[in-house]
Design brief:
Layout: E1 16-21, H1 27-36, E2 41-46, H2 48-51, E3 52-53, E4 56-57, H3 63-71, E5 75-80, H4 96-110, H5 115-119, E6 129-132, H6 136-139, H7 144-161, E7 166-169, H8 174-177, H9 186-195, E8 201-203, E9 206-209, H10 223-234, E10 241-250, H11 261-276, E11 288-293, H12 321-332, E12 337-342, E13 348-353, E14 356-363, E15 375-377, E16 386-391, E17 394-400, E18 408-410, E19 417-423
Length: 424
């Protein structure tokens, strides 16, 4: 399969959230909240009775939420859910032909230019990414051969409608939880499909925990390292894409009896850029197609560890530190695209947009070969009037510039956190 050149994509538009489950009765309020954060993707989860009924695909259960997402300019990806426990309930996973029919029906209906869009006069918008099944490596109840046949059927069905649509396996967790690069055996089961382009890439879930999967002091638990190690273990030769439908940070080490907002915010800024800035085999070409923080739509009462809202109604939703960090990133990077990425050596990303240039530095031991209290910025664009310094807590400093000042060295920077520098 020959890949078309990827269009330039704005970095903020790679961010998203979920879940929107089945009919998603409360979707309008959640989508308004997501627009406030200026993020562009949503994960739409469907369970068996909503996507397959009476031996045939069922596509009408999500018409309302799809309409809501269109009106809010949020692009959905569809995740077909299935757990091994369904087998005992009389809902078998099904064979290749079942999943081919599901993929074909959903692609025909919800792709850009599909029947749903055509009936409404909508052009150039629709579902372009389809996925199944979420974290099969946790339950480990789906036999490898059935897993392979289901994913191949789904992909072949989708591609029978449009070969440019993307199909990926549902997110994996064992690379994060256990450093298991085989994904509990599910990786080798589908390696052929990844290598030949049937599946576009991998969805990796990354939960950074200071005790079990820390950011500080090691690069081992980064999304980039997980991605690289899995590709190596599976013997992949094709340059696949990276997806993430779940990532977040957690603090569990004593003496902390509870998570502190400052700690979480610092770690979360590093985590966001880790997921946004994953690169392909050459170490510089962007691989990330989207990155979705987990529990973006849940309150702290609903999800004590990862909830990122204070309430479901009203403006107080943005008071959680990690949510403020997410909004900071979308504001700083508005209209910006990657120009240069070097996450595995310098721990740097450079972005450009009309009127500004952005440098992101992962000043974390193990994440950059130039960590410390000083950072030199070169090639500041002519005409830039100021250099703004952002940390996890927002704007920290503004340095005046003139045309004689094209290089700036910043001192007294804090280590073990991520910085964003904006020349404008």
């Amino acid at each position: 399969m020959i890949e078309k050149p990827a269009p330039e994509r704005k970095v903020a538009s790679l961010l998203g959230g979920g879940n929107f489950t089945n009919e998603a009765a409360h979707s309008t309020n959640d989508l308004t909240y997501m627009r406030k954060l200026n993020i562009g993707w949503a994960r739409l989860n469907l369970y068996p009775q909503y996507y397959y009924s009476k031996q045939t695909p069922k596509t009408d259960s999500i018409e309302k939420v799809i309409s809501d997402m269109y009106s809010h300019k949020i692009t959905p990806m569809i995740l077909f859910e299935y757990y091994g426990s369904y087998e005992k309930k009389g809902i078998p996973i099904g064979d290749y032909s079942k999943w081919f029919s599901i993929g074909q029906a959903y692609a025909e209906t919800y792709r850009p230019g599909g029947t749903w869009a055509a009936e409404r006069g909508i052009k150039d918008w629709g579902v372009t990414v389809f996925s199944a099944f979420n974290e099969p490596d946790v339950e480990r109840t789906i036999p490898f051969e059935k897993y392979y046949q289901a994913l191949k059927g789904l992909a072949d069905g989708v591609h029978s409608v449009d070969p440019d649509l993307k199909v990926i396996p549902g997110g994996f967790s064992s690379q994060n939880a256990f450093s298991d690069w085989s994904l509990k055996g599910y990786g080798p089961a589908i390696a052929e499909l990844l290598n030949n382009g049937t599946l576009d890439g991998l969805d990796l879930h990354t939960y950074y925990d200071d005790k079990y999967a820390p950011i500080l002091g090691t690069y081992k638990n980064s999304a980039q390292n997980n991605f690289d190690q899995i590709k190596k273990r599976l013997g992949l030769t094709r340059d696949i894409h990276f997806y993430s439908t779940e990532f977040n940070v957690k603090q569990s080490k004593p003496p902390h009896s509870a998570q502190t907002e400052e700690y979480l915010a610092k770690q979360f800024l590093t985590a966001i850029w880790d997921n946004l800035g994953v690169v392909k085999n050459d170490g510089h070409t962007p691989a990330t197609q989207f990155a979705m923080p987990w529990s973006l739509l849940q309150t702290g009462q609903e999800d004590k560890l990862y909830g990122m809202r204070t309430e479901h109604e009203g403006s107080a939703s943005l008071t959680v530190s990690r949510t403020k960090v997410l909004q900071l990133v979308t504001e700083v990077t508005a209209d910006a695209s990657f120009e240069y990425l070097d996450p595995k050596k310098k721990g740097e990303y450079v972005l450009t947009s009309p009127g500004k240039k952005i440098w992101v530095w992962q000043n974390v031991k193990g994440w950059s070969n130039r960590t410390g209290s000083a950072y030199q910025i070169d090639n500041i664009p002519s005409g830039a009037k100021e250099l703004a310094v952002y940390r996890w807590n927002g704007l920290n400093e503004v340095i005046p510039l003139d045309d004689s000042k094209r290089t700036v060295t910043l001192n007294n920077l804090n280590q073990d956190e991520t910085y964003m520098f904006v020349a404008r």
